[in-house]
Design brief:
The chain is an alpha/beta fold. It contains eleven helices and 18 strands. The longest helix is centred in the middle third of the chain and has 22 residues. It is elongated and about 75 Å long.
Length: 368
């Protein structure tokens, strides 16, 4: 076996942990509430273990995760921040949840009854109750909330610590979102009065919710996307710092004549004699194929350069005719500080959440 040093990565993601903590501070300052940092989907593609360790000493109320797989990863590496499961759980997962004292959200009486049975002989398990104010994927309807909480309070092996709901369109539909805030506020007030039970944690707002709305009843927020430096509402973007920058390098630059075809399907023909750079990144790394022919650009030597033709699995072609000093080996920013993931998402007809979470394992992550 060769004793030579491994080659540097062809495509990599630089992840700035100082920017991450800056964005967390913004969430705390704007909301003036306790924070549940949402780390689901591998911390939005940033690596759940590294992000969990980076935030574990930041006085967070919870880490929010989607599954026991994610909860387990955080527990194994020794994170001490409490772990909250953001959605309904499967029956086969609940014994592990009870054993590890993770906090589930309860969407049905059947879930609660099962957790109560599994937790016999232990200190009461801390759980939250979920209210469906319009998301439609879990929780008690407001009209059934008081009856549901009354039943949950009868389970001696559970303690109903919190209550929450979710905003499906806080970045798109202000009128509906305002109605959700009102419905949730009334529901919490009524269920508290009806059952004489106060909640330690009351939560509704995701990133868009805490940025652009206020609540008179909540004391906990659940930022996700904004932690990673992208605002779901454009006017707040300047307050945040992008955490992840996806980079690659120019592998070769070639002089090609006017009329030459580019990439699969020959969907692009050069309109002039051009310098065409081939860059070692493609949809196999998570860069979206759907950005093809949508005026996508990359950042090279402080200049935007247009993508030519279709994005392929491992490579893209870029027009560097007007960038006369570009050369083989130059760094290329696919998205990050200069070209936001939001822009890439819009041109690829998707959302920045997907742009982050589709980054594949062959992309090396570098933390600083």
């Amino acid at each position: 076996m060769s004793n030579s040093q491994p080659s540097p990565p062809r495509t990599w993601a630089e992840i700035n942990l100082d920017a991450l903590k800056h964005n967390l501070d913004v969430a705390k300052e704007l909301s003036n509430q306790r924070v549940m940092a949402v780390l689901k989907a591998g911390a939005y593609g940033h690596d759940i273990k590294r992000i969990g360790l980076a935030l574990d000493d930041c006085d967070l109320a919870f880490f929010g995760v989607a599954s026991v797989i994610e909860a387990r990863k955080l527990s194994i590496i020794g994170c001490t921040t409490r772990i909250y499961l953001l959605g309904p759980t499967l029956a086969v997962e609940r014994e592990e949840i009870v054993s590890n004292r993770w906090t589930p959200c309860i969407s049905s009486i059947a879930e609660a009854e099962h957790f109560d049975q599994l937790n016999q002989g232990n200190e009461p398990l801390l759980v939250h109750i979920t209210v469906d104010t319009g998301m439609g994927r879990g929780g008690f309807l407001p009209s059934l909330l008081s009856e549901g909480l009354k039943k949950l309070l009868s389970y001696k092996n559970l303690y109903i610590e919190g209550i929450g709901s979710h905003l499906p369109s806080a970045d798109e539909d202000r009128e509906f979102t305002l109605s959700q805030f009102e419905i949730f506020s009334k529901a919490v007030t009524k269920v508290t009065e009806d059952n004489g039970h106060s909640f330690d944690y009351i939560h509704l707002s995701n990133s868009a919710g805490l940025l652009d709305y206020t609540s008179t009843v909540t004391n906990l927020v659940r930022p996700g996307l904004m932690l990673y430096g992208i605002s779901p509402i454009v006017k707040y973007q300047a307050k945040l710092k992008p955490v992840l920058t996806l980079k690659s390098r120019i592998s070769i630059i070639r002089n090609l004549p006017e009329g030459h075809s580019i990439s699969y399907g020959r969907t692009t023909f050069l309109e002039r004699d051009s310098r065409v750079a081939t860059i070692g990144v493609g949809y196999g790394d998570g860069y979206p194929r759907s950005i093809s022919h949508q005026n996508g650009e990359v950042w090279i030597r402080a200049k935007r350069c247009p993508i030519l033709g279709r994005v392929t699995m491992d490579q893209i072609m870029v027009d560097v005719t007007d960038l006369t000093d570009a050369e083989d080996g130059d760094e290329v920013e696919l998205f990050g500080k200069h070209i936001l993931a939001t822009e890439v998402a819009e041109k690829a007809a998707t959302i920045p959440w997907e742009i982050f979470t589709r980054i594949t394992p062959r992309v090396t992550k570098i933390y600083f």
